[in-house]
Amino acid sequence: MRKEQALLFELGAPGRRGCSLPQPDLPVKPLDELLPPERQRKSALKLPEVSEGELVRHYTALSTRNYGVDSGFYPLGSCTMKYNPKVNEEAARQPGFAFLHPCQPAESVQGALELFYRTESYLKEITGMDRVTFQPAAGAHGELTGMMLIRAYHSSRNDQRKIVLAPDSSHGTNPASAAMTGYKIKELPSDERGLVDLKALRELLNEEVAALMLTNPNTLGLFEEDILEIAALVHDVGGLLYYDGANLNAIMGHARPGDMGFDVVHLNLHKTFATPHGGGGPGSGPVGVKEHLAPFLPVPLVEKGESGYYWKDDLPLSIGKIHGFYGNFGVVVKAYIYLVMMGAAGLRQAAADAVLNANYLMERLKRSYTLPYDRRCKHEFVLSAREQKKKGVSAGDIAKALLDYGFHPPTVYFPLIVEEALMVEPTETESKKTLDRFAEALEEIARLVEEDPEHVTTAPHTTPVGRLDEVRAARKPRVCWEGDEKSD
Amino acid sequence: MSGGRHYLPLTDAERQEMLAAIGADSVEQLYDELPPAIRLKDGLKLPPPLSEMEALAHLSELAVKNRHLREYPCYLGAGVYDHFIPSVVQYLTGRSEFSTAYTPYQAEISQGLLQSIFEYQTLICRLTGMEAANASLYDGATSLAEAAVASCGATRRRKVLVSRAVNPYYRQVLQSYLQAREFQLEELPLLKGETDYARLEMMLDDETAALLLQQPNFFGLLEEMEGVAEVAHRHGALLVLSVDPISLALCRTPAEYDADIVTGEGQALGNPPSFGGPLLGFFAARQKLLRRIPGRIVGETRDNQGRRGFVLTLQTREQHIRRERATSNICSNQALNALAAAVYLAALGPAGLREVAGLCLQKAAYAREKITALDGFEQAFPGVHFKEFAVRLPGTGERLNRHLLEHKIIGGLDLQPYYPELGPAMLFCVTETKSRAQIDALVRALEGWS
Amino acid sequence: MSWEIREGLKYTRTHEWVCFEGELVTVGITDYAQDMLKDVVYVELPEVGQEAQAGESLAVVESVKAVSDLYAPVDGEVLEVNELLLDQPELLNEDPYGEAWVVKIKIAPGYKNPGLLEKDGYAALVKEEAAK
């Protein structure tokens, strides 16, 4: 049985250290003179005391208890876990990008401003939008920004709308972001095709509706083929159409949200444009808008003038700032080099391969699992384990069983409209062989459900820890180590 | 063909085989359901693709157009700081088992990240004296805004009081977040560079959800906050402090000021300035506010064999479960930056962090003394400074910075756009990364300028 | 599957049980509701003295991955809350009709016809929902 990994606080010894610092090179004043005793810290500063070697072993040990895209296949639906090119890291690490202060005079950061400007050009062309802001630090932050823009747009027309529509299959961030901008959310049902129910849409639309938030392809991986009619319906009542860009990977170079009638788009550079997700972040969620929303964008924007690039601050209708500075610049650098290398043909091929991979897997897996919406998918598809559930094995159990085959499982229990959902997004950076192996694993698990369901419900069996007790964690939350320091 | 084709493993033969397996003739057919009016006929109009070698050269050309902090000593602070980063930080955060992972939803194969986040949460609690911390937010600005929103939720009130001594960028973000919710934001005025606490009683009322302060404040001053929490609490308001984590090695902790929520910018802990992002918003609170905390939280538990393990917990607060009633919409955060902060704090340890804070204190004091001794340069405010200080200038900050750039120095922050009432003034920041020789060179460059 | 539905109580369509005693009602969640939620990990209670409005959310019951509202069955004022649940939310799974009552409400004067279900009506509702 594998042992527990000690906590940082259980390592080291008093007086040990992991870093050296210079001696002061100037006359030193007594601490009390610079910092009166009553402003000084009273409680002990309990930080780990470890050598550099111990520190490296600790985090190396932790890394072996973790799984990334570099470890193996990661078909996490809606997350576009494609391979992260290593050149991106080298490019972003250069001191000419990593060691810039955001408040430097514009003339000393011309290369950085140019990089924003060039990336904006790429993203405008890819999305069919007129302006882009990079301030949002992640997709949900982009949604929040987009909803603020929509609110500002309606307010500027003295039009106080109160409702935002989002499909029942939408990402949880959609209603949450709309709520953070004071909107009331109404759920738009999906029809038997798995697409927006047009009849329901017509009934829900009125002049109170500020916007419809849509993901296209949607979270079932299906393209909303009525999109032009949807856009016309929303625009007819004066509403705006918001594009959740989580699934843009399926259509890059094949179609553009701007041409479909979307007014606002957010992108996830950490999904579509191959920047690493960092174990939960940093991401980057740029927002693109059509001309009529551009005056409301956050300040500042990058402009190109006669004497170089500059920050434009005077946007009187701007929603203000939504990030302390300009968003996750370091992530934008990585996405930019990806765009530069892929070019138009490469992006188009990447999208097509992502769609091909998904359809190939779907075709094979629908023999072992239920496929509730059996039509051509885009970059992802959603299976249901409802037949397996009848044998007492849930989608969650199947996910855990996959861990023993060395795969990261698909997204489970989302979208909410599919019972026992398994949402699979293979991405374009996987080979046919990997897909075949993954399919074999899922097929074997389906067989095990029939023959030895307990093996599945007790999985995983080979991971560093077994199933963890989430109820215990939530009932008596321990979110901070309260034990005593130990030393070796 | 594109320069990134080596990211796409499918061969043409495999594509054909796979198309046959799904009963399609061509890749084009996979897009059949798209209305013809929106299908891109001629493809995207983008520059021709570059190979890896050409792309790197292109990026380097852009990078060399920038004057970076390893090249020119920089005296800017204002929320983003130039602190020394031990090599071990970049080395360990670069391990791709961490950096190429998604959010740790599958706990059994994510114990590395989950444990490291738990350790990070503990480190933030130990720095601040709070009892709970989350896994990170985007930056110090959004972290403060989230604290304001959480306070409104916890107190069921709709007004927030913020000091004018709080970072002006943070106040702008706060304004955007609160305005969207139609929460009211009022500003406590300044007195000699510090919050005018004489006005506190008058401005706090029974609708005030929170009092938002910064310590050290935007001008680098450690404010006298004794008794402030008591006044806020008497009115039923929460005390929210935005703090510099480095300062906490030496300065009184937010817990010792009886704060309820602590937020701040954690970039200084092992993350490069990166032109303002990725940064690291930290967020910590008292136990009673645990369920008001936005974003992800990792908790300790046991596995089915009784071994210690870690999971994402209290997830019902979050958007993927509570949707429009979530505490926040945040999903992706700044996990890798939080990991860097944890490695940094562990590498420095208590002694190292105290040394860094001490060097900041000493060097900033030295620079302040030298600069304000120059003709025309006056200390803007008295008081106890940490690593930043404001100076009144004999000419505009914009002109001074152009002058300094000619001397290969990146000057401080021109305060005029944010605090026009001060007249020409500049905020200087001096950390342990500045040598005495560099500070002396700055002073020489200032001397005689007007 | 079968779930306990007690005699002598009234039920809502949102799976609360209601016990009338003069001008006072005690409210909790049904056996069916606790089983659908699975392990309850947290309960958010209203404040004593808070106004209750029939059909509006009064308390929140959470499991690891689900959140469920407890809706007020009548108009009135919150008289008492079961603070035991704060420390022992698992009582809601173990004894939903007994120790794990959630709130007591004083019915607003003149409030009539709450439109609640009898035992049989609720049993039919549960049967219908479970079949879905």
Please give a structural write-up:
The complex is a heterotrimer of chains A (about 500), B (about 450) and C (about 130). In chain A, helix 3 runs antiparallel to helix 12, helix 5 packs parallel to helix 12 (about 330-365) and helix 12 (about 330-365) crosses helix 15. Chain A has helices spanning about 30-35, 50-65, 85-95, 95-100, 110-125, 140-155, 175-180, 200-205, 225-235, 255-260, 270, 330-365, 385-390, 395-405, 430-450, 455, 470-475, and strands at about 130-135, 165, 185-190, 210-215, 240-245, 265, 285-290, 300-305, 310, 380-385, 410, 420-425. The longest helix of chain A is centred in the last third of the chain and has 37 residues, at about 330-365. Chain A has 17 helices and 12 strands. Helices cover about 35% and strands about 10% of the residues of chain A. The two termini of chain A are about 25 Å apart. Chain B is α/β, with parallel strands linked by helices and about 450 residues long. Chain B has 2 domains: about 85-345, Type I PLP-dependent aspartate aminotransferase-like (Major domain) (Aspartate Aminotransferase, domain 2), CATH 3.40.640; about 350-445, Aspartate Aminotransferase, domain 1 (Alpha-Beta Complex). Chain B is built from 13 helices and 15 strands. Chain B is globular and about 80 Å long. Chain C has a single domain, classed as RNA polymerase II/Efflux pump adaptor protein, barrel-sandwich hybrid domain (OB fold (Dihydrolipoamide Acetyltransferase, E2P)), CATH 2.40.50. Helices cover about 20% and strands about 35% of the residues of chain C. Chain C is built from 4 helices and 9 strands. In chain C, strand 1 (about 10) and strand 2 (about 15-20) form a beta hairpin. Chain C is globular and about 40 Å long.
